Amino acid sequence: MLLEISHPLELIKLTASLDSFLHGLLPSWAALLIEFILVGVVLLAMYAVIALILIYAERKITAFFQCRYGPNRVGKYGLIQSVADMVKILLKEIIHVDSVDKFLFYLAPFFVICASMLTFAALPFGNGLHAVDFNVGVFYLIAVSSLSIIGVLLAGWSSNNKYSMIGAMRSGAQFISYELSAGLSLLTVAVLAGSLQLSTIVADQSYVYHWNLFRGHLPAVIAFIIYLIAGHAETNRGPFDLPEAESELTAGYHTEYSGLQFGFYYLAEYLNMFIIAGIGTTMFLGGWNAIQVEGWDGFNQVMNFIPSYAWFFAKTGVLIFLSLWVRWTFPRLRIDQLLNLEWKYLLPINLVNLVIMAIIVVFGLYIK
Amino acid sequence: MTVSEYFSGLFTGIKSLLIGMSVTWKELFTKKITQQYPENRGTLVISDRWRGNLTMPHDENNEHACTACSICQMNCPNGTIVVKSKTIETEDGKKKKILDTYTYDLGTCTFCNLCVITCPSNAIRFDNSFENALFTRSKLLERLNHEGSKLREKKAAPKAAENIPG
Lengths: 368, 166
What we know:
- The complex is a heterodimer of chains A (368) and B (166).
- Chain A has helices at residues 12-25, 28-65, 81-91, 102-121, 137-145, 148-158, 162-193, 198-203, 212-215, 217-234, 246-249, 259-284, 297-305, 308-327, 335-362.
- Chain A has 368 residues and is mostly helical.
- Classes of the chains: A mainly alpha (368), B alpha+beta (166).
- At the A-B interface, loops of A face helix 1 of B.
């Protein structure tokens, strides 16, 4: 079957050999300690690198949507533009505002960045590249990614600024509403997959028609679309960017932030976009599995030469592109329209969808 | 809101969203309209209607069409144009007023085009140069008639189409 075909570029052999090397050299606790630190460092580095790549990609794609070239001065095709921007933001002064609630004000960015960092740990990036594999992985992802709203609310509250306050309140209303839809649509898939463990969910989606998107017929497709809309709304982007609506609220909840503190929000925004796409990939599009079609052995062989992490990033990239496409197509919603969309459309559809999915699973109508 | 209105509203909404997305998808592949300015200086196309800098066209014999009537000077709202004339005596003993210096101050010009419109002999026109930045204000003062140029001895050419207003 699939695993018999060799995967030449996988990192799992490398990590396994490193693990056995460390265990041979050191006592078990020291080896584990070193491994934990290594995993942490790698995740942090990936966090920064992915953000840089995303910022570049977003600026380029945005420009193409608007008949512009985008960054093209720093490096070939502007490739190191976001590195230059990062250096700039690191060098910038953090302006200390006197009348803010100091403790909460300086604490708030860490909530946002920690929440997305925690989500990062549980995402399966590839075969064997999965830092923490909880048996309630989906639940963990939803729970942890919701934490960032605390940072946003704190930022708005502690800034002592009406724009920040309005932005944070909008963000809170929006986030809590859409979290419901995102959670329910992921629940629909969890019903189909029969598991909350991300590794099991990914392993079950080996062939293309086993992808949860196709396996669950129409309800899964509806859940996917609702997940994309809700996830997009959670990232405060695109047509759902009321919390920072620059034409009304200057910059919403992060108006008072400067320098690296603002950089944290900026980073977290992009990483949240990646995380939403990453969860979507894992739950609906087969995670890090290569595109495998039953019977096409030659094709499968070729696809297997592409390592699993490349598949994960490619699928995630497609979803991110979709999100950018939506962002640069639709105008911003009003707050009542935003809440109407969630409570009058997405949520009822989602609940009915969940019941239909349950019926499909109970009667075994999904593709086995 | 009836049930049928709810669903028809939902599907019309989805349809219109998809139409919007197809429009932006097409826009993704349209030609980029950004001008890469300093690099494309050679191929840059500036509209003929662009009023860059006042010039006085001279032909190959170093002759211009300015009769030094100073209508342009009178029409200029800012005193940008100063026409200095001198009187010479022609071969047949007649006195004649000819152009001595035609001074144009780019620094006070508002590019209103009134001088070009009112010129009876079509002697001046705006070219479409635009790189007018200089380091000293004194360089903004230009003398438009060339050294040793003289009046063209014939009827004025018909006005160029681009300088006719409207």
